[in-house]
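As promised in the previous annual report, we have extended the structural survey to additional targets. Below is the entry for 8-oxo-dGTP diphosphatase.
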Amino acid sequence: MDSLSGKKCVHVAVGVILGSDGRILLAKRPDHLHMGGRWEFPGGKVEEGESIQQAMTRELREELDIGVLAMEKLIEVRHDYGEKQVFLDTWCVTAFSGKARGVEGQALAWVTASDLTDYEFPDANQPIVVAVQNRFG
Ligand SMILES: Nc1nc2c([nH]c(=O)n2[C@@H]2O[C@H](COP(=O)(O)OP(=O)(O)OP(=O)(O)O)[C@@H](O)[C@H]2O)c(=O)[nH]1
Ligand SMILES: [Mg+2]
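The corresponding structure token record, generated without further manual editing, is:
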């Protein structure tokens, strides 16, 4: 809990998943969720007692049925949505096992770093897109 605002800060594991051809995996958020209909980097909330690696591994197994083999830190982004604050703990997933599929029925897209600007992301994601383009663009 953020003691200044009293608003809960949600710690989110965000995965920039790199395919073997250098493209990046995006997933479409279901319409009924927060920021629904926008494209996101797969991931989800870090649970109590979990490390970021454990959370990323669990979320990407649940959402995409892949196994995280290697990840490295990219950027930390804090954003206030008004109704909630998010801490997007963003890592590049540089190696994974299996073939990604949208386990929850979500659409997936493999996108080059330079094409990321064609996609509509949640409001917090702009610094992530810039960081990805700086590193891989
Ligand atoms: N996964 C993900 N979440 C993001 C991104 N950008 C962003 O603002 N978020 C926000 O982070 C929060 C948590 O993400 P989530 O909804 O994926 O959490 P989750 O998988 O644990 O789902 P759940 O709510 O069903 O437990 C949401 O409010 C979401 O809008 C992003 O690129 N990827
Ligand atoms: Mg999620």
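The chain has one domain: 9-136. Residues 10, 12, 14, 33-35, 40-45, 59, 86, 88, 122, 124-125 surround 8-OXO-guanosine-5'-triphosphate (ligand 1) (CB under 6 Å). These points will be discussed at the next consortium meeting with the crystallography subgroup.
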